[in-house]
Amino acid sequence: MPLAVYPKCFLSALVVDRTMTLDEWIALVARELDVDGLEFHPGFTPPDSAGRRRLRAALEAQGLAAPMMCPAPDFIQRTAVLRAAEIAAQHRAIEATAELGGRFCRVLSGQWKPDVSRADGLTMAADAIAECVPFAARHQVCLTLENHYKASFWRYPDFARRKEDFLDLLARIPAGPNFGVNFDPSNAIIAGDDPIALLEAVKGRLVTMHASDRYFEGGGVEDLRRLDQDPRHGYAPFLRHGVIGRGCVDYDRVFGILRGIGFTGWISIEDGDDPAVGVAHLRESADFLRAKMAAYGLP
Q1: 270-292 residue pLDDT tens
Q2: Residues 93 and 132 sit within 8 Å (Cβ to Cβ)
Q3: 3-state per-residue secondary structure call for the chain
């Protein structure tokens, strides 16, 4: 079972502040972490084909792959023009995934804006994702729908963050080699759902997984739901990404299910908010996951 890493704790440094270069991130991973690949984000991926080809060669020289891309499309848009722009951006992410030699590209529903009904949101998201699937197929890429909470730069929470909405959306998009599920256990906890029950419900369509863990510092799920109604708060300050294995997720039960279905796909570490301890925490998370893989016979 291959293990990747996503730079959650360094995302601002790579995308917003530009205080870390992509070469520095790759070198850090190669030097410090026991992983097989890096999960990419469009914000720090080279925008041109030549740059992506050079990046792929540099990764391969380090013995690393780029299996996954992690865009955050927002298909919950009132106008066709805005939805088309989001679809075009998702297409660009698919192209980048393929040029890096990757196989998986995340897809989301979008932000649940106050003026959008559940019925309208389901239609907007399902239609847009369905339009992206043939494009992904042409590039030999599999779109992975994630049970997501809120992108770092979003104003509102994800439309399909709750189990019932996620499963309804998933059911509207036919199963196939170019569409599946990226499961994130700690996102289910934030939504007030049981991550084990959600994994049981989607395990037949599971293709990738985000290994994440969460803990609350000075608040809880009900406080989070109240803040979701007030977008000024953005990402709740009392919600923390933690070292994997230290938070709320029961990883023994997760890995028991993965073993039961013979899962061999990529798992990507999504760990930490604090860059000051980012490398140490990522290393601890990688070691934890390697130990679980070995314990459950999923090397």
Answers
A1: 987 677 778 999 999 999 999 99
A2: no
A3: CCEEEECHHHHHHHHHCCCCCHHHHHHHHHHHCCCCEEEECHHHCCCCHHHHHHHHHHHHHCCCEEEEECCCCCCCCCCHHHHHHHHHHHHHHHHHHHHCCCCEEEECCCECCCCCCHHHHHHHHHHHHHHHHHHHHHCCCEEEEECCCCCCCCCCCECCCCHHHHHHHHHCCCCECCEEEEECHHHHHHCCCCHHHHHHHHHHHEEEEEECCEEECCCCHHHHHHHHCCHHHCCCCCEEECCCCCCCCCHHHHHHHHHHCCCCCCEEEECCCCHHHHHHHHHHHHHHHHHHHHHCCCC
Q: Please state which CATH class domain 3-295 belongs to.
A: alpha beta
Alpha-carbon distance of 218 to 192, in angstroms, equals 17
pLDDT for residue 228 is more than 80: no
pLDDT tier, 232 (very low <50, low <70, confident <90, very high otherwise): very low
Q: Whole-model pTM?
A: 0.92
Closest to 110 in 3D by CA, of 82, 143, 77, 87: 77
pLDDT in tens, 138-182: 999 999 999 998 887 888 999 999 999 999 999 999 999 999 999
**Encoding tokens for residue 287?**
């070691």
User: Domain extents for the chain?
Assistant: 3-295
Candidate from 2-16, 34-48, 52-66, 269-283 with smallest mean pLDDT: 269-283
Q: Which residues have CB under 8 Å from 212's CB, separation 6+?
A: 184, 185, 186, 187, 241, 244, 249, 269, 270, 271
